[in-house]
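Input:
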Amino acid sequence: MNYPLLENKLPVSLKKVWRKTSLVTLTIALLFGAVVAGIFLYFENLEGTWLIIAGVYFGIILIIFLLNFLLIDYRYNFFRYEVTPKEIIFQKGFIFRSITYVPFSRIQHIETEQGPFLRREELMELIIHTAATDHSIAGLSIEEAQMIRQNVMKKVEETDEYGE
Amino acid sequence: MSMENKRERFHPSAVLVYFIRDIKHWVFLFVLFLVDIDSGRLYSILALSALILFLSAKSFIKYWTHTYTLSSDHITLYKGIFNKRETEITYERIQTVKQRQWFFFKPFNIIEVLIETASTSPGEAEASLTAVDESIIKTIESYRNQTSPDLDEEKEIEAADNQFSLKYQDVVLFGLTDLTAILIVFTALSFVFEWIPDRFFSELVSLVGNVRGILIVGLMFMGLLIIAALSLLKSFLLFYDYKAERHEDTLTISYGLFERKTQKIPLSKIQGIKVNKQLLRHLFNRSSVELVIMGGQESEGESLSIKKVYLFPLISNDQVYTRLNQFIPDRAIEKPKVKKVTQNRVWYFLRWKMLAGIPLVAIALYFNTTIAIIASMILIIILLMAWKKSQVQAYAIQKNRLLCIQQFEGFTTVQFFIMPQNVQALSYSTSIALVNKDIGHMDVTFKENEHPTNYGMRYIKEKDSRRIHELFWEALERETDYVGFN
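Output:
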């Protein structure tokens, strides 16, 4: 079957952000592992079961990193969104995929967020809150984010007037 | 100056309420002391009396310092001696008003009034007038109605159709078929066994003439009796004189023996409806109906309150849908003609459980045969449940765009009914492997009490998801379309 893909792709520069985030996460996980292993080594305890556990830990980190890093080009294609007259649709995930529909009339408020990597690429994350859930678009150009935010807020107000 | 602004104290019986609540908090300490009394130590008796004295003093001080005023536009609660606190609640902000009556309130016509607002922090905004005259609820309602005139509580009950009461034998049946009770009692029993001295067992063994088998069977039988008795007791305390009725657009539910509770639920606040057919209860041809409601329900966490909001704790299977229609007419629920969706995809439900379970059993077998047998029995039960889940999973879309999802959860077949306007988000998911087989999951997200909750179906065919999307979800779009052009 061909998996349906939504209309709007995210900006290409988001790939850079993902690569950096992936590298930073790897570094932090490796440092943490190294410190713990160092402590065991200091007390001359790094042998037997502990050595196996350490090996498994570093192995898992590397596998996750490689999957994450190498698949960025593929994953990128599966992160999309669409704004229809009635609702906003989110699509995410390459290995585990999901599409979520949120009607405007359920939206409580909208947030934008910008971490250091996103700021460098002049991107923003858009987060939409309903009474029960949060949904986010991982990265949008600043103009686009502002535009969607205003559009959505306008629609939320329109649908709100008629209430439920 | 005016009468309205005079601070009033609660009825003196509030002292007893405070005392009982504190005792509930300290119950473990009491058990500890009581067990020690057996050994005849003086200090534990002293400690016990000191604790009781301390708690009574605390209750009296609370009674002395907690006051309230009612004015035409708000309720104010005062508390504290040094650190004084005032809580002001305007009538407009009140979501629901609940009342609760302890048995010792009855002679004085006293009730406890619980006020819920839509505040986001649960527990914080909920105010309680611990012991006040029954007439106060009318005063509050009349003040409230000035701002929301549609909430008229004094309407006549429409017809006998709109009343439901739980029969005596159904209370018994509810208690005896309560599966959660079995779990709770087992943990309680294991705690008790810790405290019983070994001497007791050895004496018992000599009494029955060293026949261990009889002893074990006897203990198990006793355990079962205790479970049944406690469960019955709980069921009676909770569901004594259970009544539900509908006046216009408001449901009123009242229940309880020592602690009588009354809850008013506007139909529009109902997010979803669950019809539960638990295996044991199904044998007796009974279902139970639960309501899913948004807002801070029972955030106080009293020990003997039902966290679930039952509409019909037990009702005979052939009545359930007609009665539901009388109580919640706006949903127009029919007996769902469900379409089973995963009957021939059992493998998907088993595979991860087997992948995790079989190695564990193998490891257990390596170390200890008994543990391995127990582990494999648990695994078989888990797999059987998963198989049942795959056979039960189904859906139906009814008139009025009402979606019914049928699921199997913890020995219970649940039919969950929800309307599109109560769904906060609808999502479909799949994985890189499943997508080639046209298989995926669907979930509706809604708000239950304070928490987001999911309900959905696993491993369903893509054409079923698409059908749900068209008949259930797109219909919502058409409706907003219509509204938009108005």
